[in-house]
Amino acid sequence: MKKDSSYLWKALISLVSLTIFISCATIVGRSRPENLDIRSTPEQATVIILDEDGTKIFEGKTPTIVSLQKRKGFFRGKKYQVKIGKEGYTEQTWTVNTRVNGWYIAGNLFFGGLLGWIIVDPATGAMWTLDTRVLDVALNPSQQINQNDFYQFGIMLLDNVPQHLRDKMVKISQ
User: What are the residues whose beta carbons fall under 8 Å from the beta carbon of 18, sequence distance 6 or more?
Assistant: First the structure.
């Protein structure tokens, strides 16, 4: 009977030790890349993704799903610049950053312990998550002005004059 209880105690101590020395975000979270779902209106817009060093890591058309790394280095998350544009529309730029995963903070507080906080999760990248998972962009038509339009005379309501041209207007009568 004594022998059985010693095995039980050893198993219990092993289980508690294992729980203390594992890393919660690595187990519960994901150390692998995360997907960024990119959509646009209108569709078939060009998507270019640059990393924080300015290196192009993706070019394609919307809609698309891109798998992005979250870890740049030990305790360093990645940052991306996403450019979306289409001919006849104004290009838009978005920043996709990483933030600390909730499992890294809370999970290691209760389960993973010090090793999870300072070694395992930072080394695997599981401490990070993308701050944006879906980009759904409505592109605005570009307002290109033809140079010949400046030499024509016409009457229009002030409300119809583009904002960037209002500063160039001159009052000619009272």
Answer: none
